[in-house]
Write a structure and sequence with these properties.
Elements: H1 7-11, E1 16-22, E2 33-39, E3 57-62, H2 70-74, E4 78-83, E5 88-92, H3 97-132, E6 140-145, E7 151-154, E8 159-161, H4 164-168
Parallel strand pairs: 1-6
Antiparallel strand pairs: 1-2, 3-4, 4-5, 6-7, 7-8
Length: 181
């Protein structure tokens, strides 16, 4: 998690593929290795419970169905609650109308919250997937070269710096033209 003054300005260029070229200390033949990492920069997804507005609810009391004798056939104890904006409906068929209504509202609130969280999560996942792309090496954002050149190349901004250690410590301003920040 990153926060601070102008953090969004610096990290708006980070999503995508980052390529690292290096010679590992365990490599005897001095062959260079290339690694790719995918980076996504997203806001933290926070869920808030939705409280149902009474104006959005349609509540009906009906007679129960099934076994139960005359009590079910005479009293309106079953409750059907419909949430108009989402068209979700809950039906509770018990002996006590007040308990049925309370239970139906609790279940409906949970279902509406779950539906809202699912929408938020799918939107979040779509943004993440659009930033990451596929698993290949195309569309590189930046290349970090730790071999002979000791440089960082930003492919989107078309900038370079030989101060790879400073960039790795978080000094991204070395890569940004003065106008973009």
């Amino acid at each position: 998690m990153v926060n601070g003054k102008d953090a969004s300005l610096y990290f708006k260029h980070e999503p995508g593929k980052h390529c690292i070229q290096r010679v590992p200390p365990t490599e005897r033949g001095s062959r260079s290795h290339t690694s790719i990492i995918s980076v996504a920069v997203l806001p933290i997804l926070e869920y808030t419970d939705i409280h149902l507005n009474p104006d959005d609810l349609e509540i009906q009391a009906t007679k129960g169905s099934g076994p139960g004798g005359q009590h079910r056939n005479v009293t309106d104890s079953a409750i059907r609650v419909r949430h108009k904006p989402t068209k979700l409906t809950v039906f509770i068929d018990g002996r006590c109308q007040h308990q049925n209504k309370k239970k139906a509202l609790k279940i409906l609130t949970a279902r509406v919250n779950a539906q809202q969280q699912e929408k938020s999560q799918s939107s979040y996942n779509a943004k993440r997937q659009s930033q990451l792309g596929g698993g290949g090496r195309s569309n590189k954002v930046r290349t970090y070269n730790f071999i002979k050149q000791q440089r960082v190349v930003d492919h989107r901004l078309n900038t370079k710096t030989k101060r790879v250690d400073d960039v790795m410590k978080g000094n991204f301003e070395l890569l940004f033209p003065a106008k973009s920040v």
